[in-house]
Design brief:
Layout (H helix, E strand, L loop, with lengths): L1 H38 L2 H8 L3 H29 L1 H15 L9 H33 L4 H22 L5 H25 L4 E2 L10 H7 L1 H31 L5 H20 L1 H8 L1 H21 L3 H15 L2 H43 L1 H22 L12 E2 L4
Antiparallel strand pairs: 1-2
Amino acid sequence: MRVTSKIARTDTPGASLRGQRVALSAVFAIHGFMYASWAVRVPAIKQQTGAAAAALGLALLGLSAGAVATMLIAGALCRRFGSRQLTVLSCALLSLTLLIPPLAHTAFTLGLTLLVFGAAYGCLNVAMNSVAVDMVAAMDRPVMPAFHAAWSFGGLAGAGAGGLIAARLSPLPHLALSCLAGLAVTVIAGRILLAHPVPVASQDPGRSPATAWGRALSTGRLVGVLGLIALCAAYDEGAIGDWGALHLRQDLGAGAGLAAAGYAAFALAEAIGRLSGTALLERHGRTRVLVSGALTACGGVLVAALAPDVWLALAGFAATGLGLANLFPVAVARAGQLAGSAGVALTSTLGYGGFLLGPPAIGLAASDFGLRAGLTTLSFLAFVAAVIALFFLGGTNQPPRPPACDTSRR
């Protein structure tokens, strides 16, 4: 009887971790789903507000400003309230704030509503990645790419469902349905995450409120390097999302449907690449995955930008997606190992900054040198990421074994 009890107690933590992994994957997926649901309704909300292109651009900055503002403080909030608790709270808030933008009828009020939506979006981004870092340590496996794969597939589902619904429903009822989906995931996944604490590395340097950011900066070189890799990856992803379809249509004469397939090829390949990320990391190690992925993206974006026909360009976009797939997840996971939730926040903020910088920078380059030339600059960023990983992370190829974990709640 005693042996049976010991076996039961031994098996319970593993079963608990599997359930938490599924629950956290659902949170990542709904985060991507809700963002994509909003994104596909931008044209309809633009028409609803009567905003000119310039006014809409300023309003959309509200989302970015809100996200960056909360990313900067989310690490401290994780330490103060617990990363799991903050994940559940911000997931509920993101679901509810999704209802606010379709209520706006001017560009100014749209900007204000997006500021609130962006704040919830950025807070959940850091909180769920902080829980994922704890999960990686507890499982002793590099599973971070799998969580980001869930985000990618959630985004694809949100975009696909939004495309089908857009012709039948106005933005408010459509986003209300997305809100209900988000709240359902919050309740179901939140109960699992809160009921069973993820074992937390007892030596997590980000757990001391007084020294969290200081320690993140004291490991400065590596955390900063990881942030630069995240910035390069997100810069390229943002630019392809905004300019890829226009390149196919304007430079290669693709129809509207085929032009839209450019980003679809990129996003699907990125999601598939993230599904294989854990196996690649276990087999080849962090540095090789980062370097090979960045070089693949470098070649892929050159093919996409310089291809003489649409199909070769689509192959280039797919190769770029495969190459970029694991750069951001690996950078965030390693930053979390080094500096806890503060490292996650810092790397996420730099990455999101790159996501914001990419599209306008390509626009400026395209206005002077053409869109093809502008897109080729993305290969330089990917190459820089490869060089950084090779020369600055070469000595940390394999993830260190995490310290002994305790079961205290975050």
